[in-house]
Model the fold of this input.
Amino acid sequence: MRRLIYIIIGCAWLMHMTLVYAGPGQLHVWAALSEEGGAYAEAAAVLRAEVQENVTVTVGRWQSLPDVRQPPDMIVTIGVAAFEGTLKWLGEQDAAWARVPVLAILLPRAAYDEVMARGPVGRRSVSAVVLDQPIGRQMALLKRALPDRRLVSVIPGPQTQPLMGALEREAVARGLKLVRVPSVSSPEGIYPSLKTALDAADLILALPEPMVYNSGSLQNILLTTYLARVPLVAFSAAYVKAGAVLALYSTPAQVARRAVGMMRSWAAGRGLPPPQAPQEFAVAANARVAASLGLQLDDASVIAEDLRREEGTQ
Done:
């Protein structure tokens, strides 16, 4: 009963953006949200539900950090804005905050690297669970779901150009061929690179490259690939709803569960592991678009199960 009262009081204090601390021997984690609601709240709820008993998680917007009365044992940032804002704020604080570790989740690897490159973090331990799927897993999806499409093209930009070598190696390992196209350095370069890809490849693999795939370009890319009868495989279930044939992605809950595993390593005194991709993932498929392109697709859940079996996680 007393524990229930503490939880109720803690929730009330959170409404006022104050920090509730657990009892002696407990570790306290502050989960800093980029925004309230949506995927951020989903991930935060999993963090609070699945951490071990000696870890207490308090959730609030990252802008609430100035109201925190004393440093928590760890900060988990949820989303790019929270990671960027939190690291900047921490850099301006006194020595009491200097070693508070930061675990970032729900952000692309390129965004993590970009923020980390802006300035030193001192002795602070920083790591992440990134949204990017392992390249081998992506190529395995193409091989499994679309075995008749061997010529794969990726339209790279500033953040994804460094991945081209690894993409090529993983493609070759699965009997695929990566068709290289010019890297996009401005919005005007999207269509020429896309046209080159459509002329030479029979499949487009979209990576989370904001220079190429953004709210201003997505519909035109989807329409162009559809009219050319070249399927586009994406990195988001929302892209599948918009017209991509397939997507390989991890849900906020899956990302958060991987973060919980990293937090357990930290709580056991082993420190934070290096940045990594989620172990869990999902596959989404647009059966209507696939049928209109003459593609025979298995059910998305069956494809995902086969990929997990190949990775030894089924």
